[in-house]
Every structure is written in structure tokens, then in C-alpha cells.
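Quick one: structure for this chain?
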Amino acid sequence: MLHSIIIPCYNSDRTIRKVVETTMEEMERLGRSEYEFVLVDDASPNDPKTIDALKELARDYSCVRVVELAYNSGQHNAVMAGLNYARGEILIAMDDDGQTHPSQLPYLFAEFDRGYDIVYGYYEQKKHSLFRNFGSYVNYLTVRYLIGKPKEMKTSSYWVIRKFVRDAVIRYQSPYTHLQGLFLRTTKNISSVPIKHFEREVGESNYTLKKLLQLWSNIMGFSVVPLRFATKLGYLFAAVGLVGVVAVLINKMLRPSVPLGWSSMAAVICFFSGVILMFMGLIGEYIGRMFLEMQKTPQFVVRKVYEQEEKKEYEQKEDYDTGRGNLSGSADPDGEAAGDLLDRSQHSGELSGL
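Got it. Here's what it folds into:
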């Protein structure tokens, strides 16, 4: 049974080889010798260092396929690109920095073999910074209340899923990808196991506050809870305002000499105006995302795919034998290859990569 190991890569030229080779060793030790790697370069700003390191891995190992994105799409969209290009019956997602360590795969597989559709590895003791841990906690609470994630379910970027889950997930075409939301609406047969979180060997986290907020905001695409909350809050403020008006009128009738202050009125107006603008912005965010989806904004754009020539020839034969034809893209129009790699130009993040 083929295992597809998907790794989104971002400035990972110093770590990715060790991650891939250590994972190979662990997979062989576990007796799971049928595997492939789908390495997705998420337009790393240190290019060509990262893409060169990935292409070198593809030259050295026939089980490695490299997907180069044309622009930075974010971790979840990069994983979606990898899911589109993976062929395995079992799919595993890992990070490129070694913190999701291959030595923890036995724990994930042991739980997965019990019949679950999705198994997450979660960290009892995280090695992230205080800022990153706080962001993870906020994300946990948000996902729990907005999209109904079970309280006992803990998640991370280290998971194993079945092929039918992948097939359902890649039908989602919006650029605002949130994998937890997609998984939760695909199956409820989900489990999580505690694993060890390793220290980052090189560099530091690429997640900034802006990127964390962008990822967090993607949850809105899977919930209408914020809009319903806005409605309920509107009812509350309207009731409070009505009570306040009645109180002012009664107070004026009982004490006619009490002046009505313009400063307090101005403060109230500013407060409620701010609330109104906040929720108008929330509604505008939903409408804006609908507009972008109507424009068919892609999740990702694949610039090139690199893999060994003999692997491509095998896949072409397999495609024709199954009556599907060659669905994995055409060769370079000039017929040139980068060394012993096939360099395939792609133009979209659609299903044509399978």
C-alpha cells in the first residue's frame, strides 16, 4: 500500500534532506517500504537555495516529487497542492523543520491501524515560542466554538489520513483553506495521539502575527457563527439602548432641572458606531470572499514539477492502462529535462495534476 508523505517547504534548504532521509529510514524500519514524497516549495524567498535542494533530492531518489509554486500560498494551500499530486492510499503530512519528527510515526500508525480515517499527533509539551503557543490556543478555542471541533480532539500539522478523505478535501477550490474545517466536515472518525515535539534544529518559525491572523480568519469560511453572534449582539445593544432611553426620559420627568450632557451622548454614539462598523466589516469579509471565489481565485499556482524521467514514464503507462490517459501534465515543450528530472510546466492548482 503506497504512502504519500507531503511536506510543505519554506526556506528549508538546510533541513529538508535530513527530514526526508530520516523519514525513509523510519518507514523502512516499520516495514512500510512503499512510499513517495511530495515536496511543495511554497515560493521560498531564499530561492534558488530551497528549490535547488529539493531538485537535488528528486535527482537522488525516484520516490521524490517536487512541486514548485509560482507564489507564496500559505502552509495549508501548499499542503492542498501536495494532496492534489499525491497518489497514495495513506497520506501523511509533516513539517520541513524536523519538529514533526519521523520517530513519532509508529504512534500515528498504531492509532491509524485501529480503523480511524484521520489521526492527528498532538504535543503535550510544545517547543514553540510563547507567542506561537498563545496563537495556537486562540486557534484551538476558535475552531472549537466556530466549527464544532470536539473538546477532546487535539490537532497539529502532523497527521495521517485515508485516500477517500483526500479525495473529498481536494474538491474544495477556495483560496481560503483551513484543513481542520475540511477534515471535520468530511468525517467524524477522527482520533489524536500524544507525540513528542522536537526542538527546531535550524532557524526560527516562519509564522508571523500577520500569517497567524490570516490562517485564523480562514475559519470563517466554514462557519456562520460570527454572523449569528452579530445578530444576537445587535439585539442586546438594541435592548440596552431602549432601556437607556426610557431611563433618561423617566429621570428627566422626575428631575426636570437635570441637563442632558452632549459629551455622554457623543460617547454613546461613538461606541455604537464602532460596533456597527465592526460588524459591517465582518459581513463585508464574507461578501468579499464570495466575490473572490466567483472570480475563481486559485488556491495555488504550480510553476513546475520535478521528478525522475523513469517515474514519469511509469505513471504515463499506468494512466493509459487504466483508461485515464495522461492526466499528469505534458512534458516541457522543448523536450528538455533538468539533469535526469522531468521538468513539467503547470498552469493552475486544479485536479489536472493527478
